[in-house]
Amino acid sequence: MRVAITTLGCKVNQYESAAMGESLEKQGFRLVPFLDEADFYIINTCTVTGRTDYQSRQLIRRAGKRNPQAAIIVTGCYAQTAPDVFAGMPGVTVVAGTMEKDRIVEIVGEIKKNSQFGKTSRPAPSVQVGDVGADITDWKVRSVSRFPGHTRAFLKIQDGCNAFCSYCIVPYARGRSRSIGKEEVMERIQALAQNGYREVVLTGIHLGVYGEDRQDGSSLAGILRQVEEQRTIERLRLSSLEPMEITGDILEIMKSARIVCPHLHIPLQSGDDGILSSMGRNYDAAFFHDLTVKVCASRPDMTVGMDAMVGFPGEDEKAFENTVALIESLPIAYLHVFPYSRRPGTAAARMGNQVREEDKKRRGQTLRQLGLMKRQAFLERFIGSTMPVLVERRKDRISGHLKGFSNNYLPVLLQDGNAEMINTIVSVRTESLVSGGLLGRVHHG
Questions:
Q1: What local confidence, expressed as pLDDT, does residue 132 receive?
Q2: Are 248 and 205 in contact (CB under 8 A)?
Q3: pLDDT tens, 25-50?
Q4: pLDDT digit string (tens) for 142-156?
Q5: Which CATH number fits domain 140-261: 3.40.30.10, 3.30.750.210, 1.10.1200.10, 3.40.1060.10?
Q6: Dihedrals φ, ψ of 440, to 5°?
Q7: N or C: which end of the chain has fewer CB within 10 A?
């Protein structure tokens, strides 16, 4: 039977969707694209913003129109925090919380057993929501051997969050922080390398606290150091790290690393100390400035990107100007901008001084324009450079050139690329800027 899976949100969600797909394929189900007709549709939701909530509901409606007799399973963070929203939607068969993703084969099997596809209407909705306060001593991460459509592999090594920033619903959806052991991480990196992956991206909901819940000495710096020493994979990349968790050990390893990529994504959120305090962030603007400058100075090819939020409750024009000024002062490579989205159940949702939507939109546009300027200035620094590029399977839609990413996460198009280069790391000499990236030729010297 045919199963279609679609994913919203972070790399952790992408990892978990890949795990669900692999488990179902092992049981004889056939994965098909989400736009195709399927017998089962699985929507792996995100609830970071109101927009992702809306997109989740739209995908459910789309699946129901594609095949009215299909079973629709809704899982992920939105399903965990607001199951009643989906249980009341036409077409939804099962609402499964974040802790239920590992039971996807069992859930699909139960639906298959109790339904006669094409002959009767789908069963009435049921809700299976994992308890975020449940015992996690037996918590495990299902291994994934391949990621269809991706040249890079993801490896989830941590889940949950203890931070409880005032705007964020994720700790309520994911529970407390927990990590898999260092030796298991190393074994999985090695297995992915043996499966042909050149690059592995370490992911987690709160990656920087990896290992703190364990008593076996597991730490993020320890993994990086061991990968560098053993050359387990050709490339290892980190997903987002919080400012206070970029330790001296991590920076020292990255300074001379050959395997660990010179690329860090650091959430800023705001450049105003009052707003940062209201958000529950554990740093101020001066600390963030000094940290970013230090990281960028650690090596010439270091790439730093960041997140910024506009329109948090109480953000007036002065507070926003402080954010603009801080970002302007930093040598960053790119900027992800998000409007504050009121999440029911969070502390910020109950705050006064909510910012008007038109002000959020205007401020977002200002920061996005600043981000484009920062990106262009950063890319220009690397014109004429020679850099290692992991070539992807997908071609650039406009030019038709093969494309890939450098070790410091710069998008590069290859004028003279060929199919034999796909999923290999080639040396590229960059020549000019193109929309959103660099254009170059393979360097054989």
A1: 39
A2: no
A3: 999 999 999 999 999 999 999 999 99
A4: 889 999 889 999 999
A5: 3.30.750.210
A6: -155, 180
A7: C
| Res. 358: pLDDT tops 70 | yes
- Residue 131 is predicted with a pLDDT of 45
Class of domain 274-279+301-381: alpha beta
DSSP collapsed to 3 states, the chain? CEEEEEECCCHHHHHHHHHHHHHHHHCCCEECCCCCCCCEEEEEECCCCHHHHHHHHHHHHHHHHHCCCCEEEEEEHHHHHCHHHHHCCCCEEEEECHHHHHHHHHHHHHHHHHCCCCCCCCCCCEEECCCCCCCCCCCCCCCCCCCCCCCCEEEEEEECCCCCCCCCCHHHHHCCCEECCHHHHHHHHHHHHHCCCCEEEEEECCHHHCCCCCCCCCCHHHHHHHHHHHCCCCEEEECCCCHHHCCHHHHHHHHCCCCECCEEEEEEECCCHHHHHHHCCCCCHHHHHHHHHHHHHCCCCCEEEEEEEECCCCCCHHHHHHHHHHHHCCCCCEEEEEECCCCCCCCHHHCCCCCCHHHHHHHHHHHHHHHHHHHHHHHHCCCCCEEEEEEEEEECCCCCCEEEEECCCCEEEECCCCHHHCCCEEEEEEEEEECCEEEEEECCC
May I ask the CATH class of domain 2-128? alpha beta
